[in-house]
Design brief:
The complex is a heterodimer of chains A (445) and B (782).
Chain A lengths: L30 H4 L7 E6 L15 E2 L17 E8 L12 H9 L18 H9 L8 E4 L16 H4 L2 E4 L2 E3 L5 H9 L7 H26 L4 H27 L17 H17 L5 E5 L18 H5 L5 H27 L1 E2 L2 E2 L4 E6 L15 E4 L10 E10 H11 L21
Parallel strand pairs in A: 1-7, 1-10, 3-12, 4-7
Antiparallel strand pairs in A: 2-12, 3-11, 5-6, 8-9, 10-11
Chain B lengths: L2 H16 L10 H19 L21 H5 L1 H12 L13 H20 L11 E2 L2 H12 L5 H4 L20 H19 L9 E6 L6 E4 L2 E8 L3 E10 L9 E7 L2 E8 L12 E10 L2 E10 L23 E8 L6 H6 L8 H16 L5 H16 L4 H14 L1 H4 E2 L12 E3 L2 H13 L5 H8 L8 H11 L4 H11 L20 H21 L3 H6 L2 E4 L1 H7 L10 E4 L12 H6 L8 H12 L25 H9 L2 H15 L13 E2 L2 E2 L4 E2 L5 E2 L2 H9 L2 H17 L8 H13 L4 H10 L1 H4 E3 L18
Antiparallel strand pairs in B: 1-11, 2-10, 3-4, 4-9, 5-8, 5-10, 6-7, 6-9, 12-19, 13-14, 15-16, 17-18
Helix pairs in contact in B: 1-2, 1-5, 2-5, 4-5, 8-12, 10-11, 10-12, 11-12, 14-15, 17-18, 22-24, 23-24, 26-27, 26-28, 27-28
The chains are: A alpha/beta (445), B alpha+beta (782).
Chain lengths: 445, 782
């Protein structure tokens, strides 16, 4: 929300977002990048729920990308920047022996690559691939990873057939029991990245840092004492707390070292915009700044939650998304699903445009990224877990040769892709989830 | 009845004799016979074709489960098997399987054996995992501890939930993000509590104007804006009112609300001012104290009768109407009154020296940690006062820093209970009085114990005869027990979802914040009435009264309710009555565009009768509810669907219940037609009971009171413990439900008996995880 401002600026806004290229080149804030060193590779995952109408996602051809199917149309300007991947499958998202709950299951297995425990309480998934990477390279940036989303969690009632809401509310898992909640409120995101905006003198800011550190020291000591005679589960809860403290301490240290108040050149947002596109834009703008300023290299973006019932009034659609995907083959309902799918891709394309406009030496920020856009279900009507809609935008530096559609052998584990992506981030794992190897023809044309 | 059935009946009788309570129970020959008759034959005939040693479909070989003794030996596996068969998940469609009677007898034999086994087991109180405060508990605690109004739901990430509640220890985790938020919140809260930091020197002005699209219009007489108040303090709020009404227009009352709460009213002239402008316009102004945080502010005319005479196209014409179009906040200014939090915290004058500071800090720490604090703990908190001093800050700022540290401490953020031996599951022990005090206060208040409760616990008097009961009585009478309505009932009845539902504005133009808030208030007050007045549960289902204001009464078509305040209204006629006549419940169990008998039926089964239908088997297409109106009425569609045997077993009950509520549209308004079809709200339950309209459905449900009582017992016990119920809790649920029935289903009985129950009073060490094969090792890829 833009606010008239008559007194001197207490908040960090300098000027409103411009129109053409909203994000200024922030190299003053990124001393590490100012030198002509190789720009880091960034990795992001954008997740959309309830599957996608595959007939309008998959082109009829393989190889070089020609005309894009309807849902992907908004990405036409980026045909040379995307790679479409076919036949990737998440077997662990399937029923196997666990009965109903495909939405809860596929969402939680998407980045973790495990068959999550079916439970309402003692949740157990696995460390997600973004977090494996964040764990290894996260110390180089202010935030090891950022988690964002656009849809508030359901407040009451079931999430999906015997699955705790933790499985659908979160995409990233720091440990097998510790999901990372996405930030939904643009203001919360802004404050996380750029501070509260309350004007502090440099001395006050430094003092705040000292205070925070001594408080964290104090509670760390207390926790260790407290932990000594607890049962294993309680101990684990406090371990999560301790490891979160360590992470915050690291952030504080990092912020002091950078000694830079990053000026995002945007006004601090207030509240959650009712308009979906506006919300998407605000969040993706901030992610862009964070990636550009090398505040993080790993992002997960849960567009809406698996099983989402959001009604897309913006498109004149009053029915909830999820019920629509169980369309029983009715063309008018499928049409609405396609419109929603396309609308999501449209927002994604607007974000790609910004990433592409930001130059990093020879490359664009988009070139230096690999951003997966995908879903944990292909056909939402059938709850199908094979041939998941998957595209990667960007070149991961110059590793990926985009502009193609690659169709893999049927039932190729999605985790093979993630394993390959982790390689590109410099994190080499032998296995991940149910992986059977790396995928070929992504990084070699 | 088949011969098989007769044999079963006699063998079941044997089973019941064998299971007589109090006796050492040993499986008898009859059990084996029943197993062979009702279970083994089904396994052999239906299941063994795929789940055998050779094929092992789905990684399952049922051969080891062909003996009666396996039921006790592999209980977990058997629970899964029974579940698959009962829910119709197995055998897969198209495979010939047992009929319903055969399934019923199989389930009965196996569950009978489970029950027999359970009776031989020592009572188990279970174990609650250490849990952090959730957002509601955090906010309430800050309110009760420091007197600061902080809204954690606006600043902290969402709490995950399980079993429908967000206070389940196992699911509540701490992420680095939340830790960051704790740290920042502690800074702001401590600063606000003490108020020692100076306000910014220059006041700021924030304008929200219709021309910049920064305001919302909930109705033609109101505007609404979300605004962040950065500091506690006084603000001047200005309202722009363009236009004018007729020369004889009366003044109208203008109200100003923050987060749905009326803060201030003011009478406003609407007739022409007499001055000649091109654009008539007036300004109104209020100066009010506003608390820090994100708030939704609304300003509007109350009972704007004159608006009814305005043509809707002229609502925003400044020649024909007077209306609101902007809201401006200017501030902060120092408040003239000392803040309540300071009075609460500064129990002596800290300038008098360290002794007072220490007293302040130790008093706060005891309340924040909800237990006596040690000298060492106080000393380590006092260090923060010293740190601040060394930084050149004031004594008060030192206290502020100590508070900040307390609010991030694990002793504050977590509720941890101790065991003499945390890894010995057989070690059942009572929780300490101090721990019990917190269990009570977090159950009834979603907050910390007050001084009286903590004092009783600390002096060891809490468990003395009658003390616990008198404390519960006192706590229920305290307004803080409203937390049960917000957090328990709000989640149990799903009314929290009213904030996220979005009825189609085309179909339901009357939907808006006024109506939504009124719906919430009705159910909240209804629940609080049960709680405080100890009403019998039967009334919950069929009360002949409810709580309404003018807005909701209008929605219900009830005459004679004037004014925005809520009051008890006796119901005449049979359109409404009991909880299922509440628009809140009818709205949260509908789609944005239309009703869903299936969702409503499921709602009743799951939330009121404790019999949630199993999820639909995989690959069964969901019901074609969308076709309503095009291919016949919804009812016809559903009936077609029920012709399918698999669907019918659950839908026959679900749909019938839902149809009984079809007289209420998707926002709970009474109707007699749905589109072009007349509403038919009759139904027959599988039990054979019939009803022809909502009032009769209420009567039918009333006969299910034991189920309702048990369902509520389970939900409330889950909520009170903060853990999911386990097999061993069945005994507790049985006992409490029995006492509840004996009391005539009085609501408070339930609360007292939960508080007295074994799992609420006791705990045990943790069962150490042994390496169990929880997951199938190899599952063939399709």
């Amino acid at each position: 929300m833009i606010v008239t401002r008559k007194a001197l600026n207490r908040r960090t806004f300098l000027r409103g977002m411009g129109t053409a290229i909203a994000l200024p080149f922030l190299d003053s804030m990124t001393p590490a990048l100012a030198a002509p060193t190789k720009a880091p590779v960034r990795m992001a995952f954008v997740y959309v729920p309830n599957g996608i109408d595959m007939a309008n996602w998959n082109p009829a051809y393989e190889g070089k990308l020609g005309e894009l199917p309807r849902i992907l149309k908004p990405l036409e300007p980026f045909r040379q920047d995307i790679t479409l991947l076919g036949n990737l499958t998440h077997n662990w998202g399937r029923v196997l022996l666990d009965g109903a709950g495909d939405h809860g299951r596929c969402s939680a297995s998407y980045l973790t690559g495990v068959h999550v425990r079916k439970t309402m309480v003692d949740i157990k998934a696995g460390v997600s691939c973004d977090q494996i990477v964040a764990n290894k390279i996260g110390h180089q940036t202010r935030f090891p990873s950022l988690e964002v989303g656009l849809e508030d969690a359901r407040q009451a009632g079931d999430c999906d057939s015997g699955y705790s809401c933790a499985y659908t509310n979160n995409l990233a898992w720091r440990s097998d029991t510790q999901p990372l909640p996405p930030v939904l409120d643009p203001r919360m995101m802004f404050e996380r990245l750029f501070g509260s905006g309350l004007a502090l003198t440099p001395e006050a800011r430094a003092r705040q840092g000292r205070y925070r550190r001594s408080i964290l020291d104090f509670v760390t000591g207390d926790t260790k004492k407290l932990q000594s005679d607890l049962g294993p589960t309680d101990k684990r809860k406090l371990d999560e707390y301790l490891s979160s403290i360590r992470e915050v301490e690291r952030q504080i240290a990092r912020a002091e070292k950078d000694n830079a108040q990053i000026d995002p050149h945007m006004e601090k947002p207030y509240g959650v915009p009712a308009d979906f596109a506006e919300h998407f834009k605000l969040m993706s703008d901030m992610i862009t700044i964070a990636l550009q300023a090398d505040m993080t290299r790993v992002v997960t973006f849960l567009v809406t939650r698996e099983g989402s019932n959001r009604a897309y009034r913006e498109l004149g659609i009053s029915d909830g998304h999820h019920p629509l995907t169980h369309h029983l083959g009715k063309t008018d309902l499928i049409e609405k699903v396609i419109q929603i799918n396309t609308y999501h891709v449209q927002q994604f394309a607007a974000w790609m445009e910004k990433l592409k406009a930001i130059k990093e030496g020879e490359n664009s920020l988009l070139d230096n990224s690999m951003i997966v856009y995908g879903a944990g279900l292909s056909d939402g009507n059938r709850h199908a877990h094979e041939d998941l809609p998957t595209l990667i935008a960007g070149r991961a530096g110059n590793a990926i040769k985009p502009g193609r559609r690659v169709v893999y052998r049927k039932e190729t584990p999605m985790t093979n892709l993630f394993l390959t992506m982790m390689d590109q981030m410099g994190v080499h794992q032998e296995h991940f989830g149910d992986s059977t190897g790396r995928i070929d023809s992504l990084t070699s044309a | 009845m088949s011969t098989a059935h007769l044999i079963l009946a006699s063998s079941l009788a044997g089973l019941l004799v064998a299971a007589e309570p109090g006796k050492k129970t040993v499986a008898k020959v009859g059990d084996t016979a029943a197993f062979d008759q009702s279970v083994r034959t089904v396994l052999q005939k239906t299941c063994a074709g795929c789940h055998n040693a050779q094929l092992s479909s789905g990684g399952i070989n049922l051969a080891p489960y062909s003996n009666f003794s396996s039921v006790a030996e592999h209980r977990g596996d058997w629970e899964k098997i029974v579940q698959k068969i009962r829910t119709g998940e197995m055998p897969p469609r198209g495979t010939p399987g047992p009929n319903q009677a055969q399934i019923d007898s199989l389930v009965k034999v196996i569950e009978g054996e489970f029950e027999r086994a359970d009776r031989g087991v020592k009572p188990d109180p279970g174990r609650v995992t250490a849990r952090r405060l959730n957002r509601n508990e955090y906010s309430n605690t800050i309110r009760d501890l420091l007197g600061v109004d902080f809204r954690a739901e606006k600043d902290f990430p969402t709490d995950d939930s399980g079993h429908g509640f967000d206070n389940i220890g196992d699911v509540l985790t701490i992420s680095p993000l939340l830790m960051e938020k704790y740290l920042v919140a502690a800074e702001r809260i401590a600063a606000r509590a003490i108020g020692a930091d100076p306000l910014p020197k220059k006041p700021l002005e924030f304008e929200y104007h219709s021309k910049d699209k920064k305001i919302r219009r909930p109705n033609p007489s109101s505007i609404e804006a979300t605004h962040r108040v950065d500091f506690d303090g006084e603000y001047i709020i200005r309202f722009g009112l363009p236009g004018e009404r007729a020369a004889d227009a009366k003044p109208v009352m203008m109200g100003f609300w923050m987060d749905g709460k009326l803060l201030h009213t003011k009478s406003v002239e609407t007739k022409p001012s007499g001055l000649v402008y091109f654009n008539p316009h007036s300004l109104e102004e209020m100066r009010l104290y506003l608390p820090e945080g994100d708030h939704t502010f609304r300003v509007g005319f109350i009972n704007d009768e004159a608006l009814k005479t305005v043509d809707p196209k002229d609502y925003y014409s400044n020649r024909k109407n007077k209306f609101l179009d902007s809201m401006t906040f200017v501030g902060p200014f120092a408040a003239n009154v000392e803040r309540a939090s300071r009075k609460k915290i500064l129990i002596c004058d800290p300038k008098t020296g360290a002794a007072c500071v220490q007293r302040i800090i130790s008093t706060l720490a005891r309340r924040a940690y909800r237990r006596p604090v040690t000298q060492n703990e106080v000393a380590s908190l006092m260090k923060f006062a010293a740190i601040a001093k060394a930084e050149g800050q004031s004594v008060e700022q030192g206290i502020q820093l100590a508070i900040q540290a307390m609010l991030v401490s694990p002793h504050f953020l977590f509720r941890i209970e101790r065991d003499p031996n945390p890894t010995d599951a057989s070690n059942v022990h009572k929780v300490s009085d101090i721990e019990l005090a917190s269990r009570l206060s977090f159950f009834l208040w979603s907050s910390i114990p007050d001084d009286e409760l903590l004092g009783l616990a600390q002096t060891g008097k809490l468990r003395a005869t009658g003390v616990l009961e008198s404390q519960v009585k006192r706590m229920l009478a305290d307004p803080r027990s409203g937390a049960l309505a917000d957090n328990f009932a709000g989640q149990w009845l799903e009314t929290r979802n009213l904030d996220s539902v979005k009825p189609d504005p085309q179909k339901f133009p009357e939907w808006g914040p006024d109506l939504r808030d009124a719906m919430k208030a009705e159910t909240r007050m209804f629940f609080e009435h049960f709680l405080r007045e100890d009403r019998p549960l039967a009334e919950f289902l069929n009360a002949r009264y409810t709580f309404l204001n003018d807005r909701l009464a209008k929605h219900y078509g009830i005459e004679g309710v004037n004014g925005p305040e809520f009051r008890r209204v006796e119901l005449t006629g049979d359109q409404r009555g009991g909880i299922l006549g509440h628009a809140s419940i009818l709205t949260v169990s509908s789609y944005p565009t239309r009703t869903s008998p299936v969702i409503r039926g499921k709602y009743v089964l799951q939330n009121l009768l404790g019999a949630p239908p199993p999820p639909p088997p995989a690959d069964v297409p969901p019901l074609d509810e969308q076709a309503v109106g095009s291919a016949g009425s919804l009812r016809q569609q559903l009936e077609k669907h029920r012709a399918n045997a698999i669907c019918s077993s659950c839908h026959s009950k679900m749909d019938a219940l839902g149809f009984g509520l079809e007289n209420y549209d998707a926002i709970g308004k009474w109707r007699t037609t749905d589109g072009k079809f007349p509403v038919d709200s009759s139904g027959t339950l599988p039990s054979g009971k019939t009803f022809s309209q909502p009032s009769e459905l209420r009567e039918v449900l009333n006969e299910e009171l034991p189920d309702f009582g048990r369902c509520l017992t389970e939900k409330l016990l889950t909520y009170s413990l903060g853990r999911g119920l386990e097999r061993y809790d069945k005994r507790t649920v049985d006992e409490i439900s029995k006492k509840l029935a004996a009391s005539g289903y009085r609501f408070q009985t339930l609360i007292y008996d939960i508080v007295r129950s074994l799992p609420f009073q006791s705990r045990r060490g943790e069962v150490l995880q042994t390496a169990t094969a929880a997951k199938p090792k190899e599952v063939a890829r399709r």
